[in-house]
Amino acid sequence: MLPLRYASSGSDAIWRYRRPLVNGIHPDFATIVADCGAAIIAAARPRKRIMTLISKRVVLHFPGFEPLDGRAHCSRYARSAKQSAAVWNFSALAGEPEYGPDSTSFKVQTSADGWETCSHIHVLDHNALVEGLRTGSRAAQIRAGFWSALQVIAYGGLAGYFRHAWRFGLFFVFPFLMMILGFSLSATIAVIPIGMELPGFHLLWSVALALCFVGFVFLPFAERFYTLHLFADWHMAVALARMNHPEFSEWLDRCATAARAALSEPADEYVISSHSMGSSVAAHVIGILLERHAGVFAGTRVIFATLGSAILQCALLRPAQLLRSRVGLIARCDTVKWLDVQCMTDAIHFYKVPVVAVCGHGDARPAKMVFIRVKQMLSVEHYRKIKKDFLRVHRQYVLGPDLRAPFDFTLLTAGPRSGLVFAGSGYNKMPGL
């Protein structure tokens, strides 16, 4: 559009008057060209962006497969928030948790000069299921774990793991291989008299020695690597894939009801975060909401952030049709922005694997992959201490940082900026600091 002074206003328009040419160019034309050029340059000049801050946020968090109840998760979040606040120089105050039948909720108030954010966080942990899977004797847990492993292999899970993420395949093999090696060693101890051609009664002490080795040496050593806990993890993975346990179905229905109630609270932004195995639980719960209420997220800003996601741990099993279909529902929901946060040094997830496409929805909008580095979040000494502990590295997604880094779980769930800002450029700068 031309500047107003060049607009025609009838018989007195400026170009109706005859004026002499200057160097063969009409002076009015030269002025028009100069002003238009200035307008183009001004439009191209970078403008100062007005940052939209979040004053109220509602968060649904689905933790990973850890032996922690809602109270423990709230305490860990409060510690991580305090650590993050010290790093970023803002204040964070976590309120007292409220315990519901299927979730634990608490409020977090964060503030600094120029902003203040209140986040209402609901933790939907599955500790009740974890405790149920860990009941029974050690022998019963070991039998159930190996039965789950055979099911994973028969359902094509092991082949899928090595096809898409070989490190996750090794993670699957690790606890079972350790247990096999331990029992092989104990069996070797038991048959020592036979190898030495000793009389049969010597088997009494060798078998007793083998049992003592298993009970007092090997199993305590294996628990340092959470072996029996990982057995229960695979038991739950098969259950979430098959969805043939009424206990699991009823629990997911209750979680969906609790999530629906939490999402009814007015807020500027809704964040649904999940970690590890919790991502499969979150996919089921969100899928249930979309199945029952197609417009449940209409007119809202919803961010689905999967941190070190293990959705494919369950979804790659052949019986997991329901889980794969719910992944498609989430991907096709226009108001849900899916962020798949991944880390190369984390072996317990599917690095650079397009989860939506692998679940059979290549025509749907893919989850936006966001890559982070644990090394950037921790001090040199701290990172050197944990880098060989693959389970500890895997937990860093939801723990506090030592340094300012492009990713911070506290800022994602209680910070003043939208999670979409993190997806674009990371938390390199903070308002008010």
Characterise the protein shown here.
This protein is α/β, with parallel strands linked by helices. The protein has three domains: 4-44; 56-129 and 249-425, 3-Layer(aba) Sandwich (Rossmann fold), CATH 3.40.50; 132-234, no CATH class. Helices cover 50% and strands 13% of the residues. The chain has helices at residues 27-44, 70-88, 127-133, 138-154, 157-164, 166-190, 192-195, 203-223, 227-242, 246-263, 278-292, 311-315, 321-331, 355-358, 374-377, 380-386, 390-395, 409-414, 419-425, and strands at 56-62, 91-94, 98-99, 104-112, 115-123, 269-275, 302-307, 336-343, 368-372. Strands 1, 2, 3, 4, 5, 6, 7, 8 and 9 form a nine-stranded mixed sheet that branches. Helix 5 (157-164) crosses helix 6. The longest helix has 25 residues, at 166-190. It is globular and about 110 Å long. Residues 1-17 have low confidence and may be disordered. The chain crosses the membrane at residues 144-162, 168-191, 203-222. This is Transmembrane protein. It comes from Rhizobium favelukesii. Keywords: Membrane, Transmembrane, Transmembrane helix.
List its traits:
433 residues; alpha/beta; 3 domains; nine-stranded mixed beta sheet; 19 helices
CATH fold type of the largest domain: Rossmann fold
Number of strands: 9
- Second CATH tier, the architecture of the largest domain: 3-Layer(aba) Sandwich
Structural domains: how many: 3
The major pleated sheet works out as: 9 strands, mixed
In terms of DSSP E residues, the strand content is 5-15%
Question: What does the overall shape look like?
Answer: globular
Proportion of residues in helical segments:
40-55%
**Average pLDDT for all residues:** 89
Q: Number of helical runs?
A: 19
CATH class of the largest domain: Alpha Beta
Order of helices and strands: HEHEEEEHHHHHHHHEHEHHEHEHHHHH
Poorly predicted sequence stretches spanning 5 or more consecutive residues: 1-17
- Computed CA radius of gyration, to the nearest angstrom: 29 Å
Structural category = alpha/beta
N-end to C-end Cα span: 41 Å
